[in-house]
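User: Can you predict the 3D structure for this chain?
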Amino acid sequence: MCAKKTESLDELAVVGVDLGKDTFHLVGFDRVGQLVMRKQIKRLALQSTFEQLPRCIVGMEACLSAHFVSRTLRGMGFEPRIIPAIYVKPFNKG
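Assistant: Here is the predicted structure, written as structure tokens:
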């Protein structure tokens, strides 16, 4: 779950969410930009997973379900930000 053993999830400042059909990929960074968390969750586990995280900024690419997820997270106290697809860098393998 954690990329760095010395860091804890309490230092989480930003979470990036890749929204998919059945699974979401979460990547969390601290205030310095160090990777703290990398996790894959099921769609139905979104709320229970984010209840365990500290309140922070959550970025996600604009898509059909982004507004629903954004409203859910905002109701939980997070600060969701929807990013237009043109500004999202695609995953580069290698």
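Residues 9-87 form a domain with the Nucleotidyltransferase; domain 5 fold (CATH 3.30.420.40). The chain has a mean pLDDT of 87.
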